[in-house]
Amino acid sequence: MEIKLPRTPLAHLPTPVTPLERLTQALGGARVFIKRDDLTGLAGGGNKTRKLEFLVADALAAGADTLVTVGAAQSNHCRQTAAAAASVGMRCILVLRGDPPAGCTGNILLDRLLGAELRFSGQRSREEVMDEIVASELKQGRNPYPIPLGGSNALGAVAFALAVEELLWQTDVRFDRIIFASSSGGTQAGLIAGAHLLGFHGQILGISVDEPLERLKEIVAPVARETIRLFGGSAAIGIAEVDASADYLGGGYGVLGAPEREAIRLFARNEGILLDPVYTGRAAAGMIDMIRRGVIGKDEVILFWHTGGTPALWAYADELLV
Ligand SMILES: Cc1ncc(COP(=O)(O)O)c(C=O)c1O
User: From ligand 1's centre to the CA of 208, what distance in Å?
Assistant: First the structure.
């Protein structure tokens, strides 16, 4: 697919696609493959590295000197943004939700090592704090570039439309479904856009890690439409065209429960692959449940898109080993 947008190389691509033979056997059906976006390579890897290739290029083109973005305390997006900023010689300011945590581990440790400035939003909205920072940076004669939550605008999502092309180019396996963790929606919007533009007919099934079903669909649909528009196409993608499940929200965002713990162990002990406690652990738990209940048929071929997040494992050490 052709797109005339600047792109800053940050990711090791293509990320591998491999069959999960032992996991497939352990689950007793549905052939499961994995796409390893945990191996995109930028200071711990993850899905946001793809989006940042376009967002950072846009920032550079705008003459920006500082990347500013928002996230949860253990945000993988923020950690990858800090690494991307460092790699192109920009400053990075991260607005993290809540108050500063007692310890310094997982992604927060990496944010600090990568030289990002951390601000905690306390009771205020992160976006409000980010707006203030941008205004204050401008006042000081700097040129900040704000990146929305998760890098989930159409420019970021372009990277995931291209990732569908990467997938179709690298394997002849015909997947019935692609399953992954969905939150701020950019990954899903990009995958939907790519599937539409390239005629991929498998299901693009996002497992919500935090948003209620309708809300997630409302977030994803317009970004998918806008992403298709950036490729010069157009499509009437509404919430009916967004496939998602919000059946696995458990105790809420970032709360590790028994299903996530089991999914993490199944992947680790059958495949030697690490999932993360917040996103991929939850998405994998959803996939496993759907396979066990027969919602996903035994003869189906599934691609589990690993979106990264493993640095957060360290922040959950005590809860993971109970
Ligand atoms: C590891 C991981 N997986 C999945 C997601 C969800 O991606 P998106 O925000 O594009 O929906 C995130 C986003 O924070 C993430 O860090």
Answer: 10
**Domains (range + CATH), the chain:** 17-46+152-320 (3.40.50.1100), 48-150 (3.40.50.1100)
Question: Which 8-state DSSP code applies to residue 308?
Answer: -
Determine the Cα–Cα distance for residues 255 and 213; give it in Å rounded to an integer: 18
- Residue range 164-220, pLDDT digits in tens: 999 999 999 999 999 999 999 999 999 999 999 999 999 999 999 999 999 999 999
Segment 127-156, tens digit of pLDDT: 999 999 999 999 999 999 999 999 999 999
Bridge partners for 19 per DSSP: 33
Between the CA of 144 and the centroid of ligand 1 the distance, in Å, is 23
Pairing type for strands 144-147 and 117-120 reads: unpaired
Catalytic residue among 75, 152, 184, 208: 75
